[in-house]
Amino acid sequence: MDQESWLSCEKTAVLQGGFLLASQICQPEPLSSLRKEDWDRIGPPIVNAVKEICEHSLKDTKDRHHWKKKILCIVWSKILDVRNRKDIDTRWKEDPLFDVQNSLPDINHPVLFELIKSMSFSSIYVELLLCFQPSERCEELKLLVDHVTSSSSEADVKLLLEVWWELLKGKRGCEDALDQLFTAQCSRSLSTTEPSPQASKRFKPDPESPSTCMVNILFEGLRKIKEHLTSSELCYVALSNCLDTLYTSYLISSVTDLPIEMKLQQISRAVNLKKANGEVIENLGLIEAIREARRDLAAALIPAETKPCGMTFIQAMQFTLEVICSWEVMGLLKTPSNEPHATVMRLKDSLDRVLASLEEPSHAKDLVGNGQTLDNLRVSLKGLLGSLSFTVPESSAEEIAKMCVTILDHHLEGFEGLPRLFASKLSQDFNEANWIQCLERNASVFQTKDLLMTLISTLTHKCQSDADVDHCKRLKDVIVDIFSHLPLSDRNATLSELLSMSKKGLHGFLPCSMTKGFSDELNLAFNSIIQSGAKSSIDAAVTAVARVAFQNPEATLRRCCHMAVVNLGAHNLIAEILQQLPGLISLPGVHNDSLMSRCLQDTVWSKLSSPQEENQFLQFLAELMKCNISGCTGEKLSVLSPEEVLQVFVQPYLIATTPGSSNLQICLRLLQCTLSQETSSDTTHWIMSCSPFPSLFCLAQLLNECSRCWDQPVEGETPMPMETKELLLSVLHTMGTIVGKEVARAPDVWSRALFWLYSKVEELDWTVRFYLKDVWGEHFKYEVPNSLLAVCDLPEQDWSGLDLPQYGQGTGLVAWLECCALSESVREGMLESLSLNLLKPDDVNMFSKGLLVAVCQLLPWCTSGEWERLLKVLQELVHSSKLYVPYSLEYVDFLPLLDLRSFSVELRLSVFLLRIFQLLCSSSCSDWLPPQGWVYTGRLYANAMRSIINSVAEKISLPSTTASPKTSESCSQEVLFVFTQLFCHVLHVQVMIPGQPEALFLCALEILTQYESVLSAYPDSCTAMQGLNTRHFFTTIADNLQCADMKAVLHQKIAQL
């Protein structure tokens, strides 16, 4: 048997002995027939037993209270059991108290009530009374009131008043195990009484009758014993109970909130009075005293759970007026001559509350026809209040402070406003060291955004006063720790509020002496994030960044920006962290940019030193523009909006920079990135709020400048590289498509801007307008040089001619090719509308020569996309025999006996390209291009040749097995011959081009590799003699290269064939 069971058996044995002894004294009558007047003779053994259990053998206060409650629970359960007489076979299975109850003699309610009165168990009685259902609760209370109003003594009066006061205070927090046990006992009792014949014959009260109204029962009980109140103190308590019942049951419908300062003052006053009476022992005694004082105060401020049904407001007022008059006549409500005690102060507070409430117009309106009763009550209450003219003792600041520390240290409930008061006003009343120590011990109590902001305000005030610097630093550390433990949503709300006041966050309110060491903390936070990398928890990284951002958002964001760009791969992690800290998103200020964009500008924008940093910067901004953040109303937000990126990083540089500046390409890439962000299809695109038409004009101007890319640069300017032109075309197309859709949606809204843009681009090259066709749609025709109309049959409803001086007679094919290069749709239209009579050989011949010259004029200024479209045009023209390209055997010693018809397009196209470069590299055109222009043009030629090589390679299947296929089933010999010709053409062009670009050398190596693959797959396609001759031929061609290294590599590759 464990210790608890042994104690339980020992104590219940003592209790059993007391009851058995009392039962013997009661003989020959049973103890269940005990009358009130017999208690003094029969009750002492029971009282002594209870005292033995609760006072002598138990030293701990909690244990004593537990056993008091346990004894009362046993006794009351026994009474219920005696009354209901449930079958014993059922009871021993269901009733956990069966054993102890069975050992006691039968008892009745007077035994219970006299035990409560003798042992002052009124508060415990109420705790158990509240376990009953409302109707049974009233029945039990009625039995008590009937008991105490019969042959009443002063002890009976005290018991009634104490029970009444405890009922006003209600339940004590959460139910304990004994409450739950007794609730189950009450339920069993109820379920037993209902089906029995005796229960059906019992009187069942009407729920609306006075007998089921606790207020009515208590008022009636006081009415019966009001003559037995012989002392002023009892009258004060009784009247306070009446007034508080009146107030909570009739005058208020919601909790009355007292300011926390007033609440603390009243509770401190109550505790001091208990101390003066010797009722409070330090530590635990003080804690219980504070709890009880708060409960007493709350009892008069919380509305009753159920409104009285057996007594009206008028009746309650009349009764209150009656008892006041009665006791005034008896002289019991006289002014106390000595120092006021707790009961008098409670009465004064109750009078103040009720009088203030009765003055409200709403109550006067409810009492129409009963105004005299109300007036009489007011007069009586005011007179009584006037007679209680004494100075209410006020607690000192030191006493309040000590009580606040106790409340906070022990987390006492019911003081919701104390942390705010402690964080603000009380910080001035405390000893600084004690205040900060209490704050450090109870930091968890202050973990809300509002309390944190209050502490920040207090810290700011202290820093501006003569407060000790060390204490201020300790307070700052506590504030930072509290912030770090807030929920993420509260951290973001705090960051947002701080950022609205200062871009330097907490440090914006502190002197420099308080911010020393922050740079080390900042370094430590980000170093730990980088070192742990993907292995670390994202939550830990967010917490670390939020902690330093709280102290200084600007410095933190600067470090984030630097790290995202400089540290390889860090941009994704930093972006993910920032997306979880939307509190750092500040609204645009006077500079139209947020703190984030300013930090990006100051930290990295002008310091990008490598392509890697540029790429990470772009990827970082792309992640920040993603709408991965949910706003307060559910809307999707991003750390940086595309509008802000456009306005801060793109538009200023489109206008201010020269075409070849280093910022232009990254600006265009940023613009492309912003335009690629997802938007809602049912709303106007954000670009329409960002001056889209001026931006389009700036892009058009830049495109117009691309024609000067190979011109001799003016001093201080850098020509725009062709790669930028390609990016520019892509951006212009994307933006034009978006704006065009919005214009089509609301043409009337944008018509004026549309005409403005068209008038501005009329100053530019005519091809620029083609790229803006998506913007103005059907509003304007295609405008082309008149010379183009001479070589094309174009419909007048869509096309119109321009008289351009630079496009004179014979320039039609140049304009035609320029159109073919613009877009796929225009290219197809140009091919369909071309005017060429194939039945006239002279026309075909002239067309072919003119086309050769036209391609020469366009090739160096084509982007790779434009060149690709032109190649398709040339292929189509060769295939349709509109382009006449005779194939001369320049690199053939003997006529090959092969069928080359299936390769005729590739061979003729290669020769045509060779002729183009023969013209380009001739003396008449040799000064057209600078060295970088030749390198670029060579790269375009290499791309074209790779396209031809791939086309040839696709016409022969290379087997995946080692088995050698039959030579007759393949065209391997023809393919080898074509590769030989292509190799010669490529090296011929490389030798002609100034500087002999490396791109063509790599293309020649690729041809040799393809040649080797075919030869390996089809060894019978070439005899040993042919192989020797081919290697010698290739070597001779390669010897024309100037670069010894290139020549050596080609010789080595040729020798392996």
TrEMBL record:
Q: Which domain of life is it from?
A: Eukaryota
Q: Return the Polar residues bias intervals.
A: 190-199
Would you tell me the Gene Ontology cellular component terms? SMN complex
- Where do the segments described as Disordered lie? 190-209
Instruction: Set out the biological process GO terms recorded for this chain's protein.
Output: rRNA processing; spliceosomal snRNP assembly
**Classification via PANTHER family:** GEM-ASSOCIATED PROTEIN 4
Q: Name it.
A: Gem (Nuclear organelle) associated protein 4
Ranked from the top, the taxonomy reads: Eukaryota, Metazoa, Chordata, Craniata, Vertebrata
